[in-house]
Amino acid sequence: MRPGIRRPLLETLDHRLKPLVLIDEGRIREDDSVVFCFTRSEREVEIVEVFIKRGLRVKLITMTEYDERFRDKVEVAFPSMRIENTLSEIISRCGFKQVKITESEKEVHLTKFYNGMRERPFKGERRIIIPSPRVESFDQKPEMNIEAVTKATLKEIQDKTNRYILINFPNVDVVGHCGRDDASILAIESVDNHLGMVVEKAKRRGMVVIVTADHGSVEYSKDLHHTTNPVPFIIISDSRLRLREGGELADIAPTQLQILGLEKPKEMSGRSLFEGSSIQGDRILTVILDGWGIREETEDNLIARANTPVMDFLKKNYSYTTLKASGEVVGLLPERPGNSEAGHLTIGTGRRVLSLDLRIKQAIEEGRFWKNRALLSAIENVKKKNSSLHILGMISDESSHGTIEHITALLKLAKRENVKRVYIHGVLDRPGRIPAIDLIKDVEAKISEIGKGEFGLATLMGRDIALDRSKRYERVEMAYNALVFNRVYLS
User: Fold this and answer.
1) Under a CB-based contact definition with an 8 Å cutoff, are residues 389 and 414 in contact?
2) How far apart are the C-alpha atoms of 287 and 453, rounded to whole Å?
């Protein structure tokens, strides 16, 4: 085992890091157990799929359900909760046609998450998924494929049988993570321009238009993570009505149901945002601007720096308020920044759905974590076969895909169960408040303290490699080859 990581390049570690092998004997072998310690699913599905397709005889455990196709091949530690009477389900049950349009980079958010973790479309629901551009980094093409999304939307607006149209412009969120202010401003201005096109067409067709966002991001650009700021909520119609203040993302679904004249189900904890009078409409166009937060301060605020005449006009001339989109109101830990999964899940279900972060925290505090059947089965497997336990997890203090605390909890469980060989395979997130090198040292310290020389950090790689979500399997293959064959890819 190497005593630590002493490579000059570690001073500039980030989500793009190609795989590094730190312990040669730490590769994944047949009969081993592998725990994917990630708390979301859209970025994690491809790496699990590669393990399944390659047929390596290992026991696979995931913290949550990544894909329905894996149910007979993977054990799930914390199965997804069944969420009924979502907005899309109610619209479908009423016999209304609905269509959802976005780019492939955000496909799962507008489909699975918006539908309450249901992967299959409801009856009467169509999905139009525009391929995102295949570039190394989206700051190379800030417009992404917004023209195709807008073109498809304009066509669907023409069809009067579409009672509910949901579209998503992902640019601001996706490009904002790349860290180039000029690219982010181009993304913001492109979204603003295309928002104007779809709003104008929908208004001419007599549709009620709702404009909102899933979470904030570039309105505070000092780091590349999301924010805790509120998001906009605008209703564009012939009547300008008063909207209440203090709302949250869960209130959007009940508001849309009220516009369509449909009853809110008891499962929805959200409340209509209308204060007093409301409006009625036969057709709704809802536009989600990923990452478009609201922050009054202009310093380090890229949205304030950008030219956004459409949003400025809509906020001034139509029914407007802001909504809370982070922390407990979207099922996250207190003061935790919002994210796309929690945002779209909350908007689509009309309720606060507990995140896996919070469920794991509660399980640890209540003692249920140490008795989790799936996690214990991974440990029983390595004991029976005298093999190794592997934990793939985020080396991060704030990622919505997992944190160091989750890795630590699994290490403690392994120690309690007297597992002798445990290898950590660390995945780095975007740069945050704490430099990656310090996070790695923290993980190494915890491994040393808990493992007493028997546990080790075996590989290290960036999120863009290990957790691709755009079907760029050449990246995920790099991760697999490093994990299983100790193959290293030099930059």
Assistant:
1) yes
2) 53
Shared-domain flag, residues 267 and 302: yes
Cβ neighbours of residue 388 closer than 8 Å, sequence gap 6 or more:
26, 28, 29, 32, 33, 382, 421, 422, 423
Separation of alpha carbons 265 and 87, rounded Å: 9
65: left (phi over 0), alpha (psi -120 to 50) or beta: beta
Q: CA-CA distance, 224 to 218, in Å (whole number)?
A: 8
Q: What is the DSSP string of 319-383?
A: EEEEEE-SGGGGTSPTTPPP-HHHHHHHHHHTS----HHHHHHHHHHHT-GGG-HHHHHHHHHHH
Give the integer Cα–Cα distance in Å for 207 and 19: 50
379 and 289 assigned to the same domain: no
The token duo for 240 is 């300008």
Among 353, 386, 415, identify where a domain stops: 353
CA distance 442 to 470: 31
Q: What is the pLDDT of residues 236-288, one digit of tens each?
A: 999 888 999 999 999 999 999 999 999 999 999 999 999 988 999 999 999 99
Sign for the pseudo-dihedral over CA of 139, 325, 120, 399: positive
Alpha helix segments (H runs only) across 75-167: 87-93, 107-108, 146-158
Length of the chain: 491
- The pair phi, psi for residue 307, each rounded to 5°, is -90, 105
- CA dist 246 and 477 (Å) reads 46
* Shared domain check, 475 and 402: yes
Closest CA relative to residue 114, chosen from 252, 281, 285: 252
Same domain for 95 and 193, yes or no, is yes
Tell me, yes or no, whether 347 and 416 share the same domain.
Answer: no
Domain shared by 39 and 139, yes or no: no
- Residues paired with residue 392 on neighbouring β-strands, in sequence order: 36, 425
- Show which of 337, 353, 369 is a domain's final residue: 353
Residue 3 has pLDDT above 60, yes or no: no
Strands 75-76 and 59-62: parallel
Find tokens 């691709």 and name the residue: 468
Could you report the per-residue pLDDT of 450-483, keeping only the tens digit for each?
988 789 999 999 998 999 877 888 999 999 999 9
Is there a single domain that holds both residue 348 and residue 361? Answer: no
CATH number at residue 455: 3.40.1450.10
DSSP state of 140: G
Task: Kindly report the number of other CB atoms within 10 A of residue 47's CB atom.
Answer: 24
CB of 18 closer than 8 Å to CB of 427: no
Q: Is the dihedral of CA 334, 336, 337, 339 positive or negative?
A: negative
Same domain, 323 and 394: no
Question: Which amino acid is residue 90, in one-letter code?
Answer: I
